[in-house]
Design brief:
Distance between the termini: 22 Å
Helix content: 25-40%
Number of helices: 13
Amino acid sequence: DIASICTKLLEDFPFANGYTDICHGAEVLGRAMQDRWDPLPRFLQILPQVFYRERRAYLVGTARWPNRQQLCVVALVSAADGVRVHALLTKVEQISVLFGYARSHFHVDLETVDAVVGLLAGLLPHKPVSELYTVLGRAKQGKTERYCELQRYLARYPGEQMVHADGDRGMVMVVFTPPSHPVVIKVIRDRFAYPKDTGRRQVEEKYRLVFHYDRIGRLVDAQEFRDLRIPLEYFSEPLRRELCESCKATTAIVGEDLLLKHCYIERRLRPLNLYVREVLAADALRAVLDYGQAIKDLARSHIFPGDLLLKNFGISRNGRAIFYDYDELCLIDQCRFRKLPKGYDEDELRPLDEWVSARDSDVFPELFPHFLGLPTFLREALQKVHGELFDPAWWQVLQTRLANGEYLDVSPYPEAARLPGY
C-alpha cells in the first residue's frame, strides 16, 4: 500500500538524528499523495541525493503515469526530537519558486549535474538553464550559461535594440533590457542623483552581501559580470548616449562593441508600481499584500530593504513580490526604529527635520504609508493585513528576538503544501 511505499522511501534516506516517527510520517505523506494525485502514479522515482538549504532537506523526484510525468518534492525539517516530514510539493508553481532565482543555492552532491538540470528544465518549462545551474550550487556554470543565453538572443534578434527598462529611471544605476530576452542589465552611474549619498564601493558591497546572504525567495539573484562586450548596433541611441555620458568609469566603445567593464545581470520583473496600475483590482490587491509579506519575510531574515517604494519591488511570473534595488539595503541591527514625535500629524507638510533630530540610521515606520503612492483601497488593505510594518514597536521586538539568536522561519512553500498536523 501507499503507506508502506512511503515508509520505504523515508528509510532509503536515513539521517543521523533519525526520524521523529517514521511510520506516522509515512502515513501522513501517503494520504497527501492520495489527496493530490488521482489516480496515484505508476512509478515514483526519487533522485538519490538529498537537497539541503537553510534548515530543510528535500527529496526531489518524478511521479510517472503511462502518459505523463511531473516533478514532486518531499520537504523534511529537523526538530529537537528528530526529522519530520513537513510538506509535499506537487504543483509546478510551488516547485518553480523553490528552484527560483530569488532563492539561495542548494547544497547537494550531484555526480552529474547536467542530468538533473535536464530533468528540471524539461518539467519546469519557464525556467532558464542558467538559473537551474546557479540554484544547484554551480554559480560559475550558471553565469556561463547566462552569457551563452544572451549571445544566442543577440544572434536570434539581429535587428532588435536594447532599451531602458520599464519603470522609473534609477538614480544609482542605468538599467536596460533586451525586449525579447527576460533579463535586465544594470550599470552603476559615475555620480548619483540627490538625495543619494552613497558611493560605488558601498553599492558593490550591498550587492555582494545579497550574493552571500540567504535570499529567502524575496531578493533577486544579481550576477556580476566584468568586461562584457555587446555590439553597438544592439543599443538604442538614447541608451548608448546615457551609458557613455553617465557611466564613463565602467563603459567604453571598443571598435564596433560597447564594453561594459562592470555590470550586473538579473531576471527581469514587472515593477510593482506599474503592475498595480495595469491589472484588475483583485490582482493588484494580491500583489500589494504579498509586497507586505515580502517586507516581513526580509525582516525575519535580518534584512531591511531601506527604500520601500513600490518601484524597487517587482512581480514575478508566479505573482510573488521580489525586491531588486539594493543600494540602501542593510541589516536590521543597523537601523534604529523610532516613533514620530507628538504633533507631527498636525502639520505633515513641514519637513521631518524641523520636528526631530534624526541620524541616517533612524527609521520612522509610521511614515511608510505616506510615500508608497498607493490608491486608498490598496493602502487601507495593506494597513489592515500588515499593520505591524507601520509600528516601530514591532520592529524593535523583532530586533530583540534576532539579537537573542532566535531563528525566525520563513517557509519556502505555501501553507497548502504542508502536511496536515505539521
